[in-house]
Design a protein that fits this description.
By secondary structure, the chain is α+β, with helices and mostly antiparallel strands. The strands form two sheets. Strands 3-9-8-5-6 form a five-stranded mixed beta sheet, with no helix packed on it. The chain has a domain at 63-153: Sandwich (Immunoglobulin-like). The protein is elongated and about 110 Å long. It has helices at residues 2-29, 36-39, 57-60, and strands at 65-73, 76-78, 81-84, 89-96, 104-105, 110-111, 120-126, 131-136, 148-153. The N and C termini lie far apart (117 Å). It binds copper (II) ion.
Amino acid sequence: MKKLIIFVVIVILLGVVAYMFQIGTKEVANPTGSPSPEVSVSPSVSPTVSVSPSASPTATVVSSIKTFTVVGKPFSFTPSQITVNKGDTVVIIFKNESGTHDWKIDEFNSATKILQSGQQETIQFVANKVGTFEYYCSIGTHRQQGMKGNLTVK
Ligand SMILES: [Cu+2]
């Protein structure tokens, strides 16, 4: 009787061990297959976020072009007062109505050629500093006789 009981216990133990071994091999085999494909998807999402900062600077940069037609004659400029904002691009269309003249402003290194009666020339410069600057005709004593004006940059 004792040999039979021991034999039955050994068979049961072997069955339990065999059952646990099967479960153990199944649990090891499963995890390696499924998780890896989900991890590799996420990195492709982030680059689309970095596009937005380039949109805002266009609103803050306000640089305008201010165009003035200045008529020169003995011995005056019309107009004799021009006002712009700092940073503006100033375009001067100088029309010489009578005599020999030019239009010159030292502080912005800008001048027309010497023009004869009836000629005109367009020049431009950037008003990059604040103040009141005199423009004038550099021919003879025309400046002293009144061929001058003021450019005010605010
Ligand atoms: Cu002149």
